[in-house]
Amino acid sequence: MEKLYTPYLGNGMRGCIKETLLLPHASGERVNPMPVEQEQYYGFTQFAVELNELDSTLKALLPSTDTRFRLDQRLLEEGNIDGAEEQKQRIEQLQRERRKVLQENNMTHQPRFFKKSKDDTWVSTNTYWEQRREPGFSKMDFPVLW
Question: CB–CB of 25/13 below 8 Å?
Fold first, then answer.
């Protein structure tokens, strides 16, 4: 029988993310089985694979900055590696240009939906869900990220 390495994960948790997660004061819970062709999906679980899904009802509720709109990721998922690399280079160029404009104007990026707390961690401003509920993202000005 193969012995599983169970690293300490913090807060009393132990487990192997691919297999079992043991919580203090709880029994081990099994994760969903891996997809049949898991190598094609970078070893992601079915849940992780589905995180990037974008259906038409959800699409209208999201800001244009949502990573599910990244063309390079979509092309990579479809197996178009050359197209994904080309889009990734384009996105990185957009990032460099935005950074240059900020530096030239002595500005810093101000996150829209998060702020730094007193203990230097990032916390939600609680505005994301309010905007999504209306939906108000179509009324907002976002930089072109993808």
Answer: no
